[in-house]
What does this fold into?
Amino acid sequence: MTRARSGKTVLRGRKRLRKLTKGFRAGRGNLYRQSAMAIVRARAYSYRDRKAKKRDFRRLWIVRVSAACRMRGIRYSEFIFGLQKASIILDRKSLSEIAIHDPDAFTQIVEMVKPYLVSQK
It folds into this structure.
């Protein structure tokens, strides 16, 4: 009885894995075992960092809006509270874009918010 060898199937799988690790350095891109472990870690990091990216951007937007608010004599937390009271529905991303690219419009938004803060004090 001849020995059954699964050469094509195994080689096809290894080729597919090697294609996924294209661009990895040294053995992580060339050697099968190392590339198998490397792709597992790479996918874990990519999943984790997709979540972290969202957190990082939100943090950046908050810093930008906070800086723009302080330049106009209001704290970030007061500004967000005033937006809610004034029923102005703008997310932090759009607020930061307005603060950077259209400072006059941001100043108008701050002025719209200020009356709602005075009534609270």
Summary: Residues 9-118 form a domain with the c-terminal domain of poly(a) binding protein fold (CATH 1.10.1900.20). Helices lie at 7-20, 27-30, 32-71, 76-85, 92-101, 103-118.
